[in-house]
Amino acid sequence: xxxxxxxxxxxxxxxxxxxxxxxxxxxxxxxxxxxxxxxxxxxxxxxxxxxxxxxxxxxxxxxxx
Length: 65
Description:
The protein is mainly α.
């Protein structure tokens, strides 16, 4: 799960990750400093977007292996 520091939904996303962990679900969470909601869709403009998508892709491959 990824969240951006300035995403208006950040707190809800992080609370969801925390609740999943408490329920025994394996969760990886990364908060990207300085990022807004939807930044990961701006790959050609925001360098952190490519990094975030890479992290999520790697986590999905690992989870489905």
